[in-house]
Amino acid sequence: METNVLLLFLLAGVTLSAYVTAINSKGTVRIVLSYILASLVLLITVFCIMKHSSSQELAEKEAEKVRQKAQYEEQLRQAELQRQAEENARLAAESNQAASGIEAQKQYKDALLSIVNSGAGVARAILGVDVENENADMDALLSKSNSLKIQANSLKTKLSDLTAPEGTQTLDEGRKNAEKGLQLLAASANAFNLFFKAEDENEEDERFDLYRQNAKAASGALSKAAGLIEKVQ
């Protein structure tokens, strides 16, 4: 661009020199030829100046187009980066949520198994007491029956308060059997406790049959519940 400007100044100088020469010319023919030559040089100079101006304007427009295109491409790039960042954040959130959900499901399953196994232990403890042993300490047995009753009711309440997270429908059948087993266990533990408070042999026999029948039924239901829960992946 600087070279073009210098050339234009040079043409302007030549034009000026041509007119100075024309003015100083003597003789009609020389004057006419000088002015014709000066006019041609002037026309060429004007043409070159107009062409230069037009080229400069086109160059500025082209530069503006390039700048706008670069700006647009930069906006697209930033938008794509923003989209990718949002997508990555969404995928990370979904991954964390899925991981949290899996962990919650595992904790729920473990809690169910813990309650079921504890209930099965109480049922075995009730059935394992030899109430027909005449040398047994009745006060100790009564105390043990109170403790087992408390444990059975506590497990029943614990299961009732246990909230199932989303995605654990496959454990529903196992939980239903666990609830059934703990209800039978609570009834067995209560009858077992009352057995030691019987006022006659008929009442004692009735409560003996009741607590053992319920304990066995509870053991079966809890065993089934444990199997259903353990097989769930």
Report on the structure:
This protein is mainly alpha-helical and 233 residues long. The protein has 2 domains: 2-91; 104-230, Talin, central domain (A middle domain of Talin 1), CATH 1.20.1420. Helices cover 86% and strands 0% of the residues. The chain has helices at 2-24, 28-127, 138-161, 172-195, 201-230. The longest helix has 100 residues, at 28-127. The model has no long low-confidence stretch (mean pLDDT 80).
Concise description?
With 233 residues, the chain is mainly α. It is built from 5 helices and no strands.
Give the helices and strands, then pairings.
Layout: H1 2-24, H2 28-127, H3 138-161, H4 172-195, H5 201-230
CATH topology of the largest domain, by name, is A middle domain of Talin 1
CATH superfamily of the largest domain: Talin, central domain
Strand content: under 5%
CATH architecture of the largest domain: Up-down Bundle
**Number of domain units:** 2
Structural class: mainly alpha
Distance between the termini: 77 Å
CATH class of the largest domain: Mainly Alpha
Note the quaternary state here. Answer: single chain
Instruction: List unreliable stretches of 5+ residues.
Output: none
Q: What is the number of beta strands?
A: 0
Descriptive key words:
mainly alpha, rod-shaped
